[in-house]
């Protein structure tokens, strides 16, 4: 062969740093390189995961069937009411639609679905080919909106226009459009807060809602876990926005501050430390003495309840090493602290779509020698987990089999999980999950002596 | 009578909960069965990631697939640069012996000529002997079922040569489980038959745990074997439903004059007999006693279970080839196939299934190019009490209270999809037991309460 193929992919060099070793700035928030086997999905995916938890909306994918198939009911987002969001609707574009355009089909699809399900809200997601064949989504949606006197909102999520972060932005734009008051009247403010960036996986938003209720804080609406049309419409009335998943929501929060004068604070409910800090910060931001008192009561009560349980796990887990590769930066940051709570050090950490500010915080939190990497691929995950001697990996569905094949424990921090990881409740679940995988007896079998060789083999 | 969604107003313009995946998915699965191969999906990043996730969750195996990560620039000016970079990087990290390139909606819509691009790439790199196989698989061009067979045909078109006659039989298989593939190989070994099984993902997608981990897995159909398929005695293709245009067996027949035996997947007595008899017919070999015993045990088990099975009214859904095979098993055992459905658009399907169910007392409902909302409606109408198909059928359980026997691809909510054995006499028995026991479990679950309600309370 004519060229040297040894070594790693050079265009990935800037996306990987080792703390303490090199001073260079980690590169992030840019397109994935071709052939690098990125773990990221696309713009459409980003938009869909953010909007899909809106329970009473019709989520219609304008495109070929695959985009709808691979995203049907994939999030474990729970609903206290409507179930419409758990369907995956598609215009199922075929060859003739690509040639002649899919506009008529889309309009008819919206009509059919609205008549059948009587929804007040439709999201129409654009996919790669729609961006190329040039169907005028805006015009089609506007016309349908007038025809049915409901909201039909286009989501500009053609897969090739950027990475997953661009999808978060597209979802943000769709949400801004939804919450915009119809008349330019003065918005009547109330004392409630909006909670941004919780998708109610395994009821996590409900856990937080209960905490807030105990503190006397009124939750206006969650973006977007267990949310619905009417509740979302009231979003501009809130006094404060709290953001958890900043990667997907910081754009929306900034816009809401600009348009509706709602200030925001960043919080995280992953782990005891961050949960307690977040509850305190919310009470402080709202400034009511009774809330501050009640927050402290809640924190004291819950911490006492979970601390002993966590300590029990800590004795079993002390000294183990963790590798982290998750979607967003906030999760990664909280996980560093959460692992510390159970005596585990982080030796490798990365995200699909973390932002510069988030990587800076990670860099501050981790020990020297920890590898920090953006948009990693399986080869890199394998390399650094082995080099650093990681005992466990935190990741999503695609990373799980890699960890297992390497004989490494695994924590599911994905959208499909069926157990909450938020709040004090989640902290227990997290420790228990780490224990269940790190201390499982199956690893012993890997080191079993194995089978003896027969005499014939020695002949 | 077969019904297409089209005739089933008012939803002809929309697919509600898809019962099929897209073409490149099939292409990836086919290529995963070739030794030391890597796949690049030419399109935006999301396609490859979604499909990797879908495959990884079913097989519980690391599934590394490259992407040309087309962005806005590539979409406007062409994706050649991206594809070449992807080829470079995939070769650097994985050192594959073959690279398969499948396309997507986006690549096809912007008119990418991948044969020209890859041809030029090989010339520029002075490696014209290196096998790069290409398959044009736009998502809107068909389902994963067609993508699978079309890609198999494309590989043959690009690799297989007119060679001297050999003694081997080509065995072309559809998307069955690794356990099924191993069972077919076991039967062939018992019959002392020389063969090339194509494609063979029994090891590549179901790897034994072994240290150290290697990025490329062992196994798969050997490239040299694929090259020599043009010299085989005969081809047995388990693809009775596939159209000639995408049939790899048909291609071998037309191009190299190799007799084609197109048979159903060997599931059930009749279809497994057909497989064995075809082998006997081609080779003149005797059937060993052990296989005869397996057949006898199957018959024995069928008698044991026949009255329970007679209570069954099934909905069978998924890929056409698997659906057809399961329909035959149901009919053989007195389980009435009330609804027989596929999301693919296959012309022969209606005729074949109609013939298979001809002797049933009631008329089956056959659905082609359908979705789960139609399957559910037909199942309710047909008073179905058991579903057989991939795990997306959990929708039928949730909405229609129909217990599900998981079979085929994908199975995401249970472990062991790759280990499900359902072919041959022994596999048929195992599948039939799963069906019978599901019927029994469901009957016993409500037996006491339903009898009480039916008779005691009325009295």
From TrEMBL, chain A:
Taxonomic superkingdom: Bacteria
Give the record's pathway.
Answer: Cofactor biosynthesis; Fe-Mo cofactor biosynthesis
The UniProt keywords, alphabetically, are: Nitrogen fixation
Q: Where does the Nitrogenase/oxidoreductase component domain lie?
A: 42-438
- UniProt xrefs under InterPro entries: Nase/OxRdtase_comp1, Nase_comp1_CS, NifE, NifE-like
GO molecular-function annotation terms? nitrogenase activity
Q: Name one GO biological process term.
A: protein-containing complex assembly
Which residue windows are coiled coil? none
What is the role of the protein in this entry?
This protein may play a role in the biosynthesis of the prosthetic group of nitrogenase (FeMo cofactor).
Q: Which family does it belong to?
A: Belongs to the NifD/NifK/NifE/NifN family.
- For this entry, the protein name equals Nitrogenase iron-molybdenum cofactor biosynthesis protein NifE
What organism is this sequence from?
A: Pelosinus fermentans JBW45
TrEMBL record, chain B:
Which domain of life does the UniProt lineage start with? Answer: Bacteria
Pfam families, alphabetized? Oxidored_nitro
> What keywords are annotated for this sequence in UniProt?
Nitrogen fixation, Oxidoreductase
Give GO terms: molecular function aspect only: nitrogenase activity
InterPro entries this protein is in?
ChlB/BchB/BchZ, Nase/OxRdtase_comp1, Nase_comp1_CS
Kind of enzyme, top EC level?
oxidoreductase
- UniProt keyword Lipoprotein present: no
Q: What is its EC number?
A: 1.18.6.1
Q: Please list the residue ranges annotated as the Nitrogenase/oxidoreductase component domain.
A: 22-439
From which residue to which does the signal peptide run? none
Q: Spell out where the chain crosses the membrane.
A: none
Concerning its family, UniProt says: Belongs to the NifD/NifK/NifE/NifN family.
Annotated PANTHER family: LIGHT-INDEPENDENT PROTOCHLOROPHYLLIDE REDUCTASE SUBUNIT B
Output this protein's name. Answer: Nitrogenase
Q: What is the lineage of its organism?
A: Bacteria, Bacillati, Bacillota, Negativicutes, Selenomonadales
């Amino acid at each position: 062969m004519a060229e040297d193929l040894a070594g790693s992919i050079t265009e990935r060099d800037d996306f990987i740093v080792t703390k303490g070793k090199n001073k260079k700035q980690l590169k992030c928030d840019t397109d994935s390189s071709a052939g690098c086997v990125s773990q990221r999905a696309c713009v459409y995916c980003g938009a869909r995961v953010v909007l899909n938890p809106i329970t009473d909306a019709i989520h219609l994918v304008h495109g070929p069937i695959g985009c709808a198939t691979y995203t049907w009911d994939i999030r474990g987002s729970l609903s206290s009411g409507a179930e419409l969001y758990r369907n995956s609707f598609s215009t199922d574009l075929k060859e003739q639609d690509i040639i002649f355009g899919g506009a008529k089909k889309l309009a008819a699809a919206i009509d059919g679905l609205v008549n059948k399900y009587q929804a007040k809200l439709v999201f129409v997601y654009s996919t790669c080919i729609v961006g190329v064949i040039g169907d005028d989504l805006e015009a089609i949606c506007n016309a349908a909106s007038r025809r049915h006197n409901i909201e039909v909102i286009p989501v500009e999520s053609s897969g090739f226009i950027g990475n997953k972060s661009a999808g978060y932005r597209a979802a943000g734009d769709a949400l801004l459009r939804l919450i915009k008051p119809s008349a330019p009247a003065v918005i009547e403010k109330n004392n409630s807060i909006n909670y941004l960036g919780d998708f109610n996986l395994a009821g996590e938003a409900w856990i937080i809602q209960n905490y807030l209720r105990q503190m006397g804080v009124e939750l206006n609406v969650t973006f977007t876990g267990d949310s619905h049309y009417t509740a979302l419409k009231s979003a501009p009335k809130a006094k404060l926005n709290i953001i958890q998943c900043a990667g997907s929501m910081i754009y929306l929060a900034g816009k809401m501050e600009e348009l509706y004068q709602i200030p925001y604070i960043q919080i995280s409910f992953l782990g005891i430390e961050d949960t307690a800090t977040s509850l305190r910060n919310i009470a402080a931001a709202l400034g009511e003495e009774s809330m501050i008192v009640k927050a402290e009561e809640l924190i004291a009560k819950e911490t006492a309840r979970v601390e002993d349980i966590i300590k029990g796990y800590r004795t079993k887990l002390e000294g183990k090493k963790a590798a982290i590769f998750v979607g967003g930066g906030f999760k990664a940051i909280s996980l560093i602290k959460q692992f510390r709570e159970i005596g585990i050090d982080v030796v490798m950490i990365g995200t699909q779509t973390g932002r510069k500010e988030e990587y800076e915080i990670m860099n501050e939190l981790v020990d020297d020698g920890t590898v920090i990497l953006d948009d990693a691929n399986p080869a890199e995950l394998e390399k650094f987990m082995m080099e650093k001697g990681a005992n466990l990996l935190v990741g999503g569905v695609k990373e799980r089999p890699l960890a297992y094949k390497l004989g490494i424990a695994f924590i599911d921090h994905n959208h499909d999980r069926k157990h909450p990881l938020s709040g004090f409740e989640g902290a227990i679940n997290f420790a228990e999950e780490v224990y269940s995988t790190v201390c499982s007896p199956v690893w012993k079998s890997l080191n079993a002596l194995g089978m003896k060789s027969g005499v014939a083999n020695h002949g | 009578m077969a019904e297409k969604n089209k005739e089933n107003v008012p939803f002809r313009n929309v697919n509600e909960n898809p019962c099929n995946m897209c073409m490149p998915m099939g292409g990836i699965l086919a290529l995963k069965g070739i030794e030391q191969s890597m796949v690049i999906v030419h399109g935006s990043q999301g396609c490859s990631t979604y499909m990797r996730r879908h495959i990884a969750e079913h097989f519980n195996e690391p599934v590394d697939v490259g992407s040309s990560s087309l962005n806005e620039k590539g979409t406007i000016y062409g994706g050649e640069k991206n594809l070449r970079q992807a080829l470079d990087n995939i070769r650097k990290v994985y050192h594959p012996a073959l690279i398969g390139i499948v396309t997507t909606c986006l690549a096809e819509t912007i008119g990418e000529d991948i044969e020209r691009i890859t041809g030029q790439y090989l010339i520029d790199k002075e490696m014209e002997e290196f096998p790069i196989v290409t398959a044009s698989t736009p998502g809107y061009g068909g389902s994963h079922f067609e993508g699978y067979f079309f890609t198999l045909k494309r590989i043959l078109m690009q690799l297989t040569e007119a060679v001297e006659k050999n003694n081997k039989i080509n065995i072309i298989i559809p998307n069955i489980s690794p356990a099924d593939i191993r069972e077919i190989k076991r039967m062939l070994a018992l019959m002392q038959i020389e063969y090339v099984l194509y494609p063979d993902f029994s090891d590549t997608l179901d790897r034994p745990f072994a240290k150290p981990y290697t990025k490329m897995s062992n196994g798969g159909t050997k490239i040299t074997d694929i090259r020599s398929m043009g010299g085989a005695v005969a081809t047995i293709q388990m693809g009775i439903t596939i159209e000639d245009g995408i049939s790899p067996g048909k291609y071998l027949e037309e191009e190299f004059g190799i007799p084609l035996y197109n048979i159903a997947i060997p599931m059930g007595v009749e279809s497994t007999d057909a497989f064995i008899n075809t082998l006997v017919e081609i080779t003149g070999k005797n059937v060993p006693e052990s296989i005869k015993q397996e057949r006898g045990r199957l018959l024995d088990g069928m008698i044991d279970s026949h009255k329970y099975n007679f209570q069954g009214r099934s909905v069978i859904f998924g890929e056409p080839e698997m659906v057809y095979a399961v329909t035959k098993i149901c009919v053989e055992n007195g389980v009435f196939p009330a609804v027989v459905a596929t999301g693919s658009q296959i012309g022969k399907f209606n005729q074949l299934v109609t013939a298979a169910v001809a002797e049933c007392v009631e008329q089956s409902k056959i659905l082609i190019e359908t979705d789960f909302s139609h399957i559910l409606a037909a199942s309710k109408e047909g008073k179905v009490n058991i579903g057989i198909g991939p795990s997306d059928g959990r929708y039928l359980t949730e909405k229609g209270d129909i217990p599900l026997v998981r079979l085929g691809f994908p199975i995401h909510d249970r472990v062991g999809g790759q280990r499900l054995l359902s072919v041959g006499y022994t596999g048929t028995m195992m599948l039939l037991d799963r069906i019978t026991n599901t019927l029994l479990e469901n009957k016993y679950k409500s037996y006491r309460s339903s009898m009480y309600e039916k008779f005691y309370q009325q009295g």
